[in-house]
Design goal:
This protein is mainly α and 110 residues long. Helices cover 70% and strands 11% of the residues. It is elongated and about 70 Å long.
């Protein structure tokens, strides 16, 4: 059984990624390696203020990391966090596959 903190962290991550704009931001940042909110605003049809708001949500969900530089704040995708979430989903899928296999075996008994 996963720890309560882990479940809460996964819930924040999935909620953050459920928004198409935030998912696009994470994909863009991961592809570029890093980006500032201003750079993202130039790349995407979204205001810099909206991007900053979405980046705060992604940062709170630990999907992106911030690095302060002399030119501003750069954001980087936390790929390891995405892998952790994928592992959580795989564990859930495995449990359901096992349950469905047992149910199928019971249903097919003569």
């Amino acid at each position: 059984m996963p720890k309560r903190e882990s479940v809460a962290a996964d819930a924040r991550l999935f909620a953050a990624l459920s928004d198409p704009t935030r998912l696009r931001l994470v994909t863009t940042v991961a592809h570029r390696g890093s980006a500032t909110a201003s750079e993202l605003a130039r790349l995407l049809p979204i205001s810099r203020q909206a991007i900053a708001k979405h980046l705060r949500v992604l940062y709170g969900a630990r999907v992106v990391a911030r690095r302060v530089e002399h030119s501003g704040v750069r954001y980087e995708a936390r790929v390891e966090r995405l892998r952790e979430a994928a592992t959580s989903l795989e564990a859930i899928a495995s449990q359901w596959e096992s349950r469905l296999a047992r149910l199928k075996a019971i249903a097919e008994k003569p």
